[in-house]
Each structure stands twice: as structure tokens, then as C-alpha cells.
Amino acid sequence: MAEELEKVDAVIVGTGWAGGIAAAELTKAGHKVVALERGKAQSREDFIGAKDELKYSIRYHMMQDLSKDTVTTRSSRKDVARPVRNNSRARMGNDTGGASAHWNGVSFRWMPYDFEIYSKTVEKYGKDKIPKNSRIQDWGITYDEIEPYYDKYEKTTGVSAEENPIGPWRSDEYPNPRMKSTPSIDLFKKAGESLGYHPYHLPSGNMSEQYTNPDGETINACVYCAFCEEHGCDFGAKADPIVTVLETANKTGNFEIRNESTVTEVVHDGSKATGLKYIDNLTGKEYIQPADIVVLAGFVFTNNKLLLKSKIGEPYDPETETGVIGRNFTGHFSNISTYIGARGFFNDKKFNLAMGAGSLGATLDDFSGDNIDHSDLDFLHGYEIRYYHLGKRPIANNDVPEGTPAWGKEYKEKNLFYHNRNILVRAKVAFLPNRYTYLDLDPTYKDELGDPLLRVTVEYQEDDIKRAQHGVDTCEEIVKEMGADIIDRVDVDDNAEFDHMFYTNHFIGGAIMGEDPKTSAVNRYSQMWDMENLFVLGGSSFPHVSSHDPTETIGAFAYLSSEGMIDYLKGDGGLLIEPKEKKEA
Predict the structure, then answer these.
(1) By three-state DSSP, how is residue 139 classified?
(2) Residue 511 CB coordination number (10 Å)
(3) I want to staple 36 with a disulfide (CB 3.0 to 4.6 A). Which of 203, 261, 275, 421 is the partner?
């Protein structure tokens, strides 16, 4: 039987950006907070001298142990889902800081179009423009309303950036200047400009200079060592929860992280959450942590699994389209939304590609959201074009032109020759929700504790493929303008299917926000319609994935939600914002 512990003001699942921001804001307001983290404890000192590509990028030391808990996946409702057991296919974060400790640092705002995508689409093109199986919906909040929280997140994390020439309005400048440029970045930007586009430096969570944020936390200047992705920062120069919000929460004296704690259930009485049940991974002992408010701030799969297992909210059924938990699952899937584009090989240009940083590079937004007229296009939304100067580590970077033998003398010669003479321009493509892409509990497979695994069903639609192919065409156009001698397309097949790979952590939905409890699980404050003291943070609350990385938007909504939690704890309970139908009544 589980041992019940002393009640606190708030208990949080996860210590990534969403959980870390909630912890910092609640504890600064004087509330006692416990965060339950499945993985081990880690601090910035653990990453000193940790430039080990084999350990972190090949053996995935900072990733979730998929032998204990994972997801099952399928590319059609007709298929039998199978578990994902290889970290090369699923790079889900673990330990203190979660995926936010080994992220690259790319820090985009999403566009006004994203938050009102249904209304703006119908207003401009009419309802018939929306594809048959698409389920786009407004979020119940506008860009203007979330903008102050974007600003707050950027100042907490010290985003280093230059102004997006065609971006949305800002209430203030970025806190830090953009990162350095390189000859390859300059070449990309010059090519984009010559084609009439509007390139600019990637907004970066890597620091262009040492920075102290409003909470008094100092983040050091980046040294461009190239070990960002899949690594913790050796120099404390990458904004992550460990060096910012978790440190802030710890200083208040009101915060406790319990590592090696696997949450198994939201405890509730049917109308309110009363706490979280969890297992101590080291002893096997089971506990219940009671709290006035419960915050699910895990990854999208964790949050949805807990809601479904705890029987909170009605599960989504794709046949009847009833239910809300599991609907509108979207993401940057590897073979259609992220790892596509065009690679250029140069015979007469050589670059220093060894140095770099997680968000060093350049981008352009001319094809993002509704920045292009979609009247004559067979898809909605769009894609961001990006050139990354990540830095080439020695093991994983051996690109040669298509048609080169995979071994032997010719391979070796071309591998050496083109190692610093090839550039990949990517399309980061939006993926819009559809009726048949969703999450539920698997009827067959279970985790190490005997609970059902979460099942992921992803069915690409024709408009998803057309959007991605358009992005590859634009990448090829830019690489050609850059002067490449050989161009290889990283293309999208007309019959592309989900490839069961979760290379990024850009997966969204399942417990989405909106104004109607029939089609959403939470309101703008990430507060459950069905359980007023339960808040579900992170990308699981977003109705779709944009063409941009989601981290900054996760951070902005975590700040908005934290503000709501503090107000809730001050008040007499109830919903912080009513459903649209009640507000209009």
C-alpha cells in the first residue's frame, strides 16, 4: 500500500522547461513545491569535460531507457503497433532538466496565424480550403495575448538573436545580440537575399555573451565547441532549466526535486486531483504526494499516458470523433517534417565546419504559416528554411554525393574531400492535425510496471506530403543559388508513411487547449476543463505543431499557466477562464 506523505501546495511531474518554470514562479510566490523526476540527478558540473560523442550521441546517455517504458507506433489504424526500443529512433530526454538539458537552443516565437489558424484560414480562403480530414482549430488565445510571456521567457533564457525581418511585433528587443557568423552562414544568407527572401540569424539559447537574467542567474558565453545537441553544456553557456529556473527555485528554500521517482497515476476524487502516486525507482516503494494543485509537465507521451491511465477526460475515438484525450497529435516527424531538404557539395569552396553551436545558423520565414498566398497551393501552413552550423563531430559526419560506393577507395577519397565542402539546407515543416493521427493506450504491450504503453498512430495526409515536397524544392533552389556543384535532394516520396522515428522532441498534442470542452482538454492557462486544480503543461496542450521549434512557445505558456496557478491558489477555486459558450451566454 502506498505511503501518503505530507501535503504541499503543488506537485509537478518533470523538471524540463515547463516544470522548471512552474517551480520557479510558484516558489518565488512562497508556495511549497515538490517536483517528481523519473531520471537521475544532474548538475552543470556533470557536463564539464563531457565532449564524448560516443557516450552521448551514439549511446544516448541522457536519453530515456526504452527497455523500461516506451511508446508503440504504427502508420495506419489497420496496423499492429510495435514498441520503439532503440534510442536512435526515439531521443526522449531523461534526468534533471529533461530534454531541455540536451537541446540545441533554437528559440523561435510562433506566428499570430498559428494561434488563430482556423479563423484566419476561413476568413481568407473559405472553409473549403481546409483539407477533408484536417482538424485545425483556434487555441482560444491570440499572439497579442501571449506576447508578454514570450518576452519573459526570452529574458529568462537570454535569447541571442537579430530581428526577424518579416516576423510578428515585439514589445522589446532580444536580451542579447545574435551569435557570430561564418562564411557558410553568410553564403546562405546572401543566396536567400538574392532570391528575394528575408534570411536572418537563428534565434539562439546559446549565449553570444555572458548574461545575467532577471532572476540573477548567470549563463556564460558560448565558445562554439559544437557539443550541444544530445549533450549538456560543458561551459554553462546554453540556457537550460538547470542553470536558470531550477536554480532559481532551489534558492527560495521552497523547492524539492525527488529524482528516481516514476509517477504512475494522478490521484483524484472525480472532480479534483488530490496528488500524485509514484514509485521510488531505487527502493520500489510506492508513495502518494498530496497537493493543492497537480501539474503534469512531462513530455507529451508522459502527460497523455498519465491522463489516460488515471481516467481523466474522455479518450479520443477517431471513428466517432468523440473524446479529447489523445486527439490532435502532431509533430516534426523525421521523414516529412525535419530531416528533409537539399545537400550541396562544393568543389571549390571549403568551410571550417568543425566549430559550431546548437543554434548557430540562419533561417528564413518567407514560407512559414500564411506568409505565402495559399490560394493556388494544395496545402495550408508551410515551412521554415534553415541552415545549421552545428559543428561536425568526427563519428557521425561522413557525407558523400549520391552514387558513391559505401566503402573502398572512392568512398574514402570523396569522404575526405567533401568533409568540409558540403552543406545541408533543411525545411522544418509544419504538420497539421488530422482525424486519424492520435494517441491511445496500447491493448497489448506494457511497461516494466505492468501498465499499458502509449500507442502512437500517425497517418500522413496528401497535404502533408505536398507541403514537405514544396519545402524540398525551395531548399534545392537556395543550394543552387549558393553555387553547389552537386545537389542531392533529401526528398519526400509521394506515398510517404510515418517511419516510426522520433529524432526530435518536437511532438505535440493529445491534451490540447481551446475554448470548447468538447474539442479541447485544457483552457489557455493549461487548466483541465474537467478537473480545475490539474494543469497540463508543455507541448501536449498545443492544437498543432508550427513550422518552428516549440520550446519557446512551451516556455511562454508555462509562464502564463504559472500566473494562473498562483491566482488559483490565492482564490476560492474554479476555472480561471470559462468555456466560450458560457462566456457568451
Answers:
(1) coil
(2) 31
(3) 261
Rounded CA-CA distance 558/16 in Å is: 11
Q: How confident is the model at residue 505 (pLDDT cuts 50, 70, 90)?
A: confident
pLDDT(396) > 90: no
How much is the pTM? Answer: 0.97
Report CA 497 to chain centroid distance, whole Å. 21
Q: Which three cell numbers stand for residue 325?
A: 484525450
Distance separating alpha carbons of residues 33 and 246, to the nearest angstrom: 12
- Rounded Cα–Cα distance for residues 541 and 307 (Å): 12
Instruction: Provide the phi-psi class of 407: left if phi over 0, else alpha when psi is between -120 and 50, else beta.
Output: beta
Q: Identify the active-site residue in 201, 381, 389, 506.
A: 506
Note if 548 is an active site residue.
no
Please check whether residue 206 is in contact with residue 223, taking contact to mean a CB–CB distance below 8 angstroms: no
Cβ neighbour number for residue 212 with a 10 Å cutoff: 11
pLDDT tens digits for 410-443? 999 999 999 999 999 999 999 999 999 999 999 9
Q: What is the 3-state secondary structure (H, E, C) of 465-500?
A: HHHHHHHHHHHHHHHHHCCCCEEEEECCCCCCCCCC
- Here the cell at position 158 is 537570454
Residue 510 in contact with residue 439, Cβ under 8 Å? Answer: yes
Distance CA 568, CA 576 (A): 7
What single-letter amino acid sits at 422?
Answer: N
Nearest to 321 by CA among 432, 431, 438: 438
Of 468, 475, 476, which Cα lies nearest the Cα of 379?
A: 468
Task: Determine the Cα–Cα distance for residues 482 and 424; give it in Å rounded to an integer.
Answer: 11
Strands 255-258 and 33-36: parallel
Phi, psi of 356 (to 5 degrees): 165, -175
* Phi, psi torsion values for 362, nearest 5 degrees: -140, 160
Report DSSP state, residue 220.
Answer: P
**Percent of the chain surpassing pLDDT 70:** 99
Residue 559's Cβ-count burial label (10 Å; 0-12, 13-18, 19+) is: buried
